[in-house]
Amino acid sequence: MSARPVSDRLVVIVLFDGVDLLDVTGPPEVFALVRRETDDTNAYRVVLAAETMDPVTTSAGVRVLPDATFDEIAGLAVDTLLVPGSVEMTVEGDGQRRVQALAEPAVVARVKELAGRSRRVTSVCVGAHLLAAAGLLDGKRATTHWSTAPQLAADHPEVKVDADPIFIREGDVWTGAGISACLDLSLALVAEDFGEELALRVARQLVMYLKRPSGQSQFSVPLEPVSTTRRVEDLRHHITRHVGEPLTVADLAAYAHVSERQLTRIFKTELGTTPSAYVESARVETARRHLETTDATLERIASACGFGTTDTLIRAFRRRLDTTPTEYRQRFRTGRASVG
Predict the structure, then answer these.
(1) How far is residue 253's CA from residue 250's CA, in Å, rounded to a whole number?
(2) Alpha carbon distance 320, 228 (integer Å)
(3) Residues whose CB falls within 8 Å of the CB of residue 35, separated by 6 or more in sequence, listed in order
(4) Which residue in the list 101, 125, 161, 313 is annotated as catalytic?
(5) Cα(37)–Cα(256) distance, rounded to whole angstroms?
(6) What is the pLDDT of residues 64-86, one digit of tens each?
(7) Do 20 and 126 meet the contact criterion of CB atoms below 8 Å apart?
(8) Max CA pair span of the chain
(9) Other CB atoms closer than 10 Å to residue 326's CB: what's the count?
(10) Spatial separation of the C-alpha atoms in residues 188 and 218, rounded to whole Å
(11) Strand, coil or helix: what is 281?
(12) CB under 8 Å to 144, separation ≥6 — which residues?
């Protein structure tokens, strides 16, 4: 990718029919706030580029007008190429509706061409599928929306797919996760270009959590798949209600009136995890809420969430979120916390 002067930050966003609307509109809002916060009209120059100047119909049905065609920007060096994505719903043989990421060959060809003269390349949500199809993620670690991560791994085995982080940077290539994570990714780009302090000011204007670390999981316990049996749903609610209690495999098996071996098999089949791992994720989720909304000490949170010690709490946070409870609280505390 070609280098360019940092004073000329041309951001090109790729447009095509069926593109996800927020993927296109979210990042420009972040870049526009940089101009507002700095009074620097040249901070970023955003161009929406498409094959023709005809209106592009997004997945939301809203039409967007391109600023230029791909041919018109052919002679320009690009600072940041931003590639959004698109999906369609398919019905599989089992009758289940599933999300399928699209990668039209004509769009892939344009992305590959533009990437060759861009300082850095970024994808938003399922836009990672377009980068992968263009060969830009070969040998690299990348993320995408959790619902299409298995498809990305299957279609492009040369890509090291990690569905957990909010965004991943590999050199000059950045990939982002879920649709709203386009704002987190854009803030990270601002932080790289202008520093952390300005990125935090922009985040405040967006009324966002100041800045989610890239390693923060895009999953939480409530987002995990709903089980197909009432017994497992009852177990999940039981765990949530009694998260501060021991909740050993033996305890849960006794509650469900099954053997420990059968309980483990049920969790693996229904939720794709072990009872112990699920309990830990529930405890981390509860601890996150305490950290966001209260001034409770780590010792008190560890006790209330069933971790027992702060060391256990810290290890769980590092394992699950790749951060510490203290770092998480600094980034995510909302409003005026209460003593919990």
Answers:
(1) 5
(2) 25
(3) 41, 43, 44
(4) 125
(5) 56
(6) 999 999 999 998 999 999 999 99
(7) yes
(8) 70
(9) 12
(10) 16
(11) helix
(12) 85, 101, 123, 125, 126, 127, 128, 129, 152, 161, 163, 175, 177
Whether 125 sits among the annotated catalytic residues: the reply is yes
Question: Residue 79 belongs to what H/E stretch?
Answer: strand 78-83
Strand partners, 142: 161
From residue 230, how far is each of 235, 256, 269, 279 by CA, in Å? Answer: 8, 11, 14, 18
Q: pTM for this structure?
A: 0.66
Percent of the chain with pLDDT over 70: 87
In whole angstroms, give the CA distance from residue 142 to residue 127: 11
CA distance 185 to 169: 10
Per this entry, what is the length of the chain? 340
Phi, psi of 176 (to 5 degrees): -115, 160
Q: Helix or strand or coil: residue 275?
A: helix
Give the amino acid at 194. Answer: F
- Tokens standing for residue 192: 């790289």
Cα gap 2→23, rounded to integer Å: 25
Q: What is the mean pLDDT of the chain?
A: 87
Q: What is the pLDDT of residues 142-197, one digit of tens each?
A: 999 988 999 999 999 999 999 878 889 999 999 998 767 788 889 889 989 998 78
Tokens of 79: 């600072």
Supply 106's token pair: 């004509």
Structure confidence at residue 262 (pLDDT): 94
Would you say 20 and 120 are in contact if contact means Cβ atoms under 8 Å apart? no
Angle between helices 21-38 and 181-194 (to 10 degrees): 30
Return the pLDDT at 5: 39
What are the two backbone dihedrals, phi and then psi, of residue 11, each rounded to the nearest 5 degrees? -105, 120
- What is the residue type of 195? G
